[in-house]
């Protein structure tokens, strides 16, 4: 996005679809073809879908929206989100808006190093075998390097190796772990290829039998973090106390922590889906990391600064890419990356972590003060109005009447629409 432009597009939600697309196209310098993709109600051709998965029948649509107001590392960012749940885009935009005054989010991401595991069984003395493998680290690394050559050409490649004995229900096994810098890819294919390539050598060295050769989604070497300050003048002292109480609840109680982290993932997953990333991998990694200390915890932390402002932080593994796989195949994913204006996987991870934090802050603020149902109900009423056939100004009218009557049902929406049209 042009740095001179701002992501704080006021009243964006009130614009027509066409106007929104025009604004985004201009702000993000989208090509005409990309604007056309946004305009299309079926941007993915069946022929492509049919090659992506087995037994394809058609397409599954999801709303593709943009969250506004984000500043990440000093850069104005518009954030594409693909999600079916109402309020998520609005909450992210709101969380980001309320920290603009303190320059938004300061984020960072580690080098994109993926870890993969080779499981070796049928070894009489697993501890001894693991020790011997570690002693032969340089030989193993040398033999592994050719399998990671594709990445080395782009500045990535093999970064590490270690082996350990693992006691299991079926006896002790050896687990050999490889680290590969996958640059701007998510990296699953790369690392799995490396593991399958080197596995026979490990069998040869240990006399054991190779079973699994697969990445771990607990991408612990690929952490992303983001931090923001919400000024007390911007959100009020009561909201700060509310967010701190809500966070303390999540830290102390797994039932709350689960929902707290679900809210974070509402934002992160929506960006993952919009950009064609593997959101199940991101989810699995996030929750495993949340439980990695032996207790399932919140992925965010909050504290009150000496001047009374609220500081929030998030940290989680984010194995996401900007190249390869579905990212290349899905037309909307390409447009999403252009809207974001990110080139590298690390830049994308920085934005995603910031979206997770914004989402969490907005949810905690709403939950601990006015509750979230009012906002949810408004959107629900609008959805019912649309389903009943309302269009344009009718939508607001039908939804507004149902909100007044506190009766938002499909049949009531139809009745009201009928009445309005009769007049
Ligand atoms: C709903 O999808 C997400 C929330 O439940 C998150 C939270 O409780 O923190 C609102």
Task: Give an overview in words.
The protein folds into three domains: 12-108 and 223-369, 3-hydroxy-3-methylglutaryl-coenzyme A Reductase, Chain A, domain 2 (Alpha-Beta Complex), CATH 3.90.770.10; 113-215, Hydroxymethylglutaryl-CoA reductase, class I/II, NAD/NADP-binding domain (Alpha-Beta Plaits), CATH 3.30.70.420; 375-422. The strands form three sheets. The chain has a four-stranded antiparallel sheet. Strands 5-6-4-7 form a four-stranded antiparallel sheet. A two-stranded antiparallel ribbon has the order 1-2. A hairpin with a 2-residue loop joins strand 5 and strand 6. The protein has 423 residues and is of the alpha+beta class. The model has no long low-confidence stretch (mean pLDDT 95). It has helices spanning 17-27, 32-39, 46-52, 88-97, 126-135, 137-144, 149-152, 188-206, 232-235, 237-252, 254-274, 279-290, 325-329, 331-340, 345-368, 373-387, 393-405, 410-422, and strands at residues 64-72, 75-82, 105-109, 113-121, 157-168, 171-181, 209-215, 223-230, 300-304, 310-317. It is built from 18 helices and ten strands. The chain binds (R)-mevalonate. (R)-mevalonate is lined by residues 85, 259-260, 262-263, 266, 363, 367, 372. (R)-mevalonate (MEV) is lined by residues 85, 259-260, 262-263, 266, 363, 367, 372.
- Shape category: globular
Which structural category fits the helices and strands? alpha+beta
The kinds of small molecule bound in this structure are: (R)-mevalonate
Helix content: 40-55%
Alpha carbon gyration radius: 24 Å
Mean pLDDT: 95
Structure annotation, total helices: 18
Low-confidence region ranges: none
CA distance, first residue to last residue: 46 Å
Summarize the biggest pleated sheet: 4 strands, antiparallel
Say how many strands there are.
Answer: 10
Side by side, the strands of the main sheet go 3-8-10-9
CATH topology of the largest domain: 3-hydroxy-3-methylglutaryl-coenzyme A Reductase, Chain A, domain 2
| Count of individual domains | 3
């Amino acid at each position: 996005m042009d740095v001179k432009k701002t992501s704080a597009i006021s009243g964006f939600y009130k614009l027509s679809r066409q106007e929104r697309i025009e604004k985004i196209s201009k702000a993000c310098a989208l090509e005409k073809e990309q604007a056309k993709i946004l305009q299309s109600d079926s941007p993915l051709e069946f022929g492509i879908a049919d090659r992506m998965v087995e037994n394809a029948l058609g397409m599954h649509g999801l709303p593709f929206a943009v969250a506004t107001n984000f500043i990440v590392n000093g850069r104005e960012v518009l954030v594409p989100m693909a999600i079916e749940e109402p309020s998520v885009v609005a909450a992210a935009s709101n969380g980001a808006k309320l920290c603009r005054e303190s320059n938004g989010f300061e984020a960072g991401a580690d080098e994109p190093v993926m870890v993969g595991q080779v499981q070796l069984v049928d070894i009489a003395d697993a501890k001894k075998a693991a020790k011997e493998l570690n002693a032969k680290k340089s030989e193993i690394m040398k033999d592994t390097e050719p399998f990671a050559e594709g990445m080395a050409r782009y500045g990535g490649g093999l970064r590490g190796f270690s082996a350990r004995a693992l006691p299991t229900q079926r006896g002790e096994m050896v687990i050999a772990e490889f680290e590969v810098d996958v640059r701007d890819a998510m990296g699953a294919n790369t690392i799995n290829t490396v593991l399958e390539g080197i596995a026979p050598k490990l069998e040869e060295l240990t006399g054991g039998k190779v079973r699994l050769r697969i990445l771990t989604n607990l991408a612990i070497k690929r952490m992303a973090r983001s931090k923001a300050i919400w000024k007390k003048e911007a959100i009020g002292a009561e909201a700060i106390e509310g967010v701190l109480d809500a966070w303390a609840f999540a830290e102390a109680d797994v039932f709350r922590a689960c929902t707290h982290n679900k809210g974070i993932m509402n934002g992160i997953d929506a960006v993952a889906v919009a950009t064609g990333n593997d959101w199940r991998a991101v989810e699995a990694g996030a929750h495993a990391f949340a439980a990695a200390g032996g207790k399932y915890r919140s992925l965010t932390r909050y504290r009150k600064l000496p001047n009374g402002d609220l500081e929030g932080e998030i940290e989680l593994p984010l194995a996401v890419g900007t190249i390869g796989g579905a990212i290349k195949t899905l037309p909307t994913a390409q447009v999403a990356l252009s809207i974001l204006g990110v080139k590298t996987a690390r830049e994308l991870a920085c934005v995603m972590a910031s979206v997770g934090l914004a989402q969490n802050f907005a949810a905690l603020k709403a939950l601990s003060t006015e509750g979230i149902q009012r906002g949810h109900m408004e959107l629900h009423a609008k959805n019912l109005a649309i389903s009943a056939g309302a269009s344009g100004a009718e939508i607001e009218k039908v939804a507004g009447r149902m909100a007044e009557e506190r009766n938002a049902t499909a049949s009531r929406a139809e009745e009201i629409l009928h009445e309005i049209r009769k007049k």
